[in-house]
Amino acid sequence: MTDSFQYTCAAQDGKARAGTFSTPHGILETPVFMPVGTQATVKSLTPDHLDDVGAQIILSNTYHLYLRPGDDLVAELGGLHQFMHWNKPILTDSGGFQVFSLSETRKITEEGVLFKSHIDGSSHEFTPEKSIAIQQNLGADIIMAFDECAPPYDKVYNQKSMQRTHRWAERCLNAKTRTDQALFGIVQGGVFPDLREISAQTIVKLGFPGYGIGGLSVGETKDEMNAMLEVVNEILPENKPRYLMGVGSPEDLINGVLRGVDMFDCVLPTRLARHHNAMIPTGRMNLKNNQFARDPNPIDAVCDCYTCQNFSRAYLRHLIAAKELLASTLISIHNLQFLISLMKQSRQAILDHRFQPFAQSFLKNYKGN
Amino acid sequence: MTDSFQYTCAAQDGKARAGTFSTPHGILETPVFMPVGTQATVKSLTPDHLDDVGAQIILSNTYHLYLRPGDDLVAELGGLHQFMHWNKPILTDSGGFQVFSLSETRKITEEGVLFKSHIDGSSHEFTPEKSIAIQQNLGADIIMAFDECAPPYDKVYNQKSMQRTHRWAERCLNAKTRTDQALFGIVQGGVFPDLREISAQTIVKLGFPGYGIGGLSVGETKDEMNAMLEVVNEILPENKPRYLMGVGSPEDLINGVLRGVDMFDCVLPTRLARHHNAMIPTGRMNLKNNQFARDPNPIDAVCDCYTCQNFSRAYLRHLIAAKELLASTLISIHNLQFLISLMKQSRQAILDHRFQPFAQSFLKNYKGN
């Protein structure tokens, strides 16, 4: 299995890494941003749009696909790649984050998590073995260990939860049978450097072809997130990819790359698009604002996405005012290409050994979230 | 002006015609189906999708664009082609159909129609001159005379309304100043052959580069519609295109072509798509039905649209169940390509002088609306 999932570091600049990671559906060039297709579709976009914006890999959600349409159905139809017509790499999460978010309707035991469906209230249980079985049915290139993403500030709870997550990680390793999928372990430990250290050491000792860094961007400060990344990446092996889970603001991406992160995912770009916000180098642009009503300029004059090459702010604002679906599509295209290009530019800057000034210049100009 | 808007009949098979019509943004091959982009967007599709499905020309609505974003704004931004990034031909309607539909809030005089906006209740007046001025601001290749689409069965009212429509047609001709737009006259007269005859003769005498046939598919039977087409097309000149307005069911298209119609438009394919219905040679397929839950087949195995080439009925049903926007996009792509291809196939059949059996075979297999 490990033969198929090789990480190679092509260049390092400070802690920042430019690398490649091989999967059965192609080689990822890292650092990379992964668009999220929760329900086997990146909202409002076709797979062709995803190709156009330069997506190398997408993420899909085990919890959602298990409930609807069902992982058995996806398997019967040839797996997630064929089902959604995406022939490049896919990563699925473990479902853990979603079931733990159902705080009112779930119960955690050593065995796993009992929860009720948000769709129809029906009862279900996820265990490490069940999560792996579902992810094997879905058939992504990269699958994730079943973990608990604990609230960041309760040390006693984080210690207890993290140790259970470690036991679950081992159960996931034992449950996995497919050799054409890479299982990533996940480091937890809240905002506590000593817990993060223990977690990273324990998960690394179990041995995975890649590592997720979980439990960040969930309420802690940016300084705390950055501090945890520094602790964890000091321990994670240099010859494996590092994935900062659920992180997607431009400044968090740059800060992550500065600290040696290789992979990111977030619903932010497509969610912002549905709320009329375009991502730009200085922050966000709310295209619903009156000031854009007669503005013939594109969102960003230097952006080469389909939206910026062909449509004015005035047209996008018209689509928003007229409640036309095309608004979400066009702004999603721009936002995804913005984040994907930011990672491509970062990669090139690392290869050229100019990533430090590139990152500093970006962070200096960036005003918003 | 007429030099730019030449209709050439390449072949005739019975009454069915295969022709070309030249416009400033390209040559239409007829018969042709025109997708409707009411608010300067064909709902849920990018202009690239429209290219992909083979759209030669789209229709947009004067009433909607006048109210929002405003025709002056569209003009300021370079006209409708540039505004919505569609560089092929566009046709705008006159706004008449929409304002006459506002039956509770409009008042008709010889001068024009007073009406209230469906968006904010504000008062407005459309006159023939105003309609032409708006359509000149929008800048479509083909613009339509301001007419009244009367209820089909009231003969006294139809006679009175039709005569006013004729006077308005003349006022439209006098109001028009742009030479890069073709103004089509419109024949009215309800379901009454004698009125249709008078209307066709009167409008032809005024002299237009093309003719709309209005007031059909508004409640009359299909036999009545076909009878009116036969009366009118006997009178319309052979060297000008004929446009059956607002008609879009597959059988109506075939019946129209059989009777010498060249152009059609309708919201049906995109509206059906938003309600989960795919158009197929035998009628409609409701993709929300349970029977498709595990169906690996495309909507139509012989269709070469993007949707049928890449996605199963099971996937489309999943998108519908999950309320994902991509369902509308993918089914719209299929439905539009279905109607556009139907007209392309009809054209080829006419050129090959086998349209009569082609049409009969299609109508025989077609079960429903």
Please sum up the structure shown:
By secondary structure, the first copy, chain A, is of the alpha/beta class. Chain A has a single domain (2-272, 334-365), classed as TIM Barrel.
Commentary on this structure:
The structure is a homodimer of 369-residue chains. Chain A has 369 residues and is α/β, with parallel strands linked by helices. Chain A has one domain (2-272, 334-365): Alpha-Beta Barrel (TIM Barrel). Chain A is 42% helix and 18% strand. The first copy, chain A, is built from 15 helices and 16 strands. In chain A, strand 15 and strand 16 (283-286) form a beta hairpin. In chain A, helix 8 (193-206) packs parallel to helix 9. Chain A is globular. Chain A starts with 6 loop residues before the first strand and ends with a helix. The mean pLDDT of chain A is 96. At the A-B interface, helix 13 and helix 14 of A face helix 13 and helix 14 of B.
Q: Topology, please?
A:
2 copies of one chain form a homodimer.
Chain A: E1 7-13, E2 16-23, E3 26-30, E4 32-35, H1 47-52, E5 58-60, H2 62-67, H3 71-76, H4 80-84, E6 90-92, H5 96-101, E7 106-108, E8 113-116, E9 123-126, H6 128-138, E10 142-144, H7 155-175, E11 182-187, H8 193-206, E12 211-213, H9 222-235, E13 242-244, H10 250-258, E14 263-266, H11 268-274, E15 277-280, E16 283-286, H12 306-310, H13 313-321, H14 326-351, H15 355-365
Parallel strand pairs in A: 4-14, 5-6, 6-10, 10-11, 11-12, 12-13, 13-14
Antiparallel strand pairs in A: 1-2, 2-3, 7-8, 8-9, 15-16
Helix pairs in contact in A: 6-7, 7-8, 8-9, 10-14, 10-15, 11-14, 13-14, 14-15
